[in-house]
Amino acid sequence: MKNLLILGGGTAGTMMANRLQKFLKPNDWSTTVVDRDPNHYYQPGFLFVPFGIYRPEDVHKPKSDFLQGDINFIVDGIAEIQPKDNCVLLDSGTVLGYDLLIVATGARIAPEETPGLLGPLWKKDIFDFYTFEGSVALRKKLEQWQGGKLVINLAETIIKCPVAPLEFAFLADAYFRDRGIREKVEIVYVTPLSGAFTKPKATQLLGKLMEDKGIRVVPDFYLMEVDNETRELVSYDGKRESFDLLVSIPVNKGDEVIERSGLGDEDGLNFVPTDKRTLQSRKHSNVFVIGDATNLPASKAGSVAHFESEILTENILSYLAGQSLDAHFDGHSNCFIETGHGKAALIDFNYDTEPLPGKFPWPVIGPMGLLKVNRANHWGKLAFRWVYWHMLLTGKHLPVSTNMSMAGKEVEVSV
Fold it and tell me: Which domains does the chain possess?
């Protein structure tokens, strides 16, 4: 019997296990998923926990509930990946051999990379919301905070869910308005980007929303350290930005096992060098990579992992059949962007095409609007939690094309 080993039981790893389970004959293949955490977290929900929109218990369930069929689930840490020997060493000392390996170890925040971020103010006046623990602690802080200068800071540009910091700013504006203390709160968005987002058309929309909501944007700010004594962010070129309450999006890196195994990229962020079309490892032919663990020039987001999973399923089946890997991922991503008070925007893009206005997912009826702020997009965002638990993780078909479709999009024609 041959062994399929999947490292990571988050969004990407769970989807791949369930998808391949439908095609691999149980008498021929054994499928094993390894993850150190028995809980599966709905990470998009971390954004809503600080504002009381979701309860902490709304965003996690047992991982074992979502692994179907005869999939083996091992709760253990991963000590080292040894691709030359086709095996993985676990923290418990167990050695797992594999014929095919899928790396879905995700990304993690690394606040230790920024001097001062883990200083005396950490979890007192400095918080993250990219972890379950961080979002719950921030919820408690916001409930009793009476105002001051709230700074939202991106330490780096390569982060999970690139729109989440913007959403946090918009939801914070709505939250403090609903509490009747918005005039007591200054909201500042400090980013290394030259604008609110990376894509020009989206940046135009999101920058205007920031302006309308009275959120000040500080662009081109490359964080060097956090000064806990003066309560300031300090940039490499000497700029300073003070804060009363700091919501940090720390440096994001790949799992530490990637570094220990010598599989990371050259920039030291520990993401795995991956063919951006086929999702095959650039170093080992029987290793494939998916989701946040890759070094692809695509968003690290759940929608990307979903689209990748469909491509990767085709390519793995082709690989096992000795055929060429003809299914190509185009970098497709779509993201809802909560803007507060029951409205949201939506963007859809890929490697080559920036977000465009139009209708989604169907070209005539929508019902959601691209690069538009409306209630339909907000309800789409909230409905996605049900879709995530009941359809996405289990590998059911969703009515969205794997590769980006231009249907319904408004394309400017140059004259």
Answer: 2-106+255-320 (3.50.50.60), 111-252 (3.50.50.60), 330-415 (no CATH)
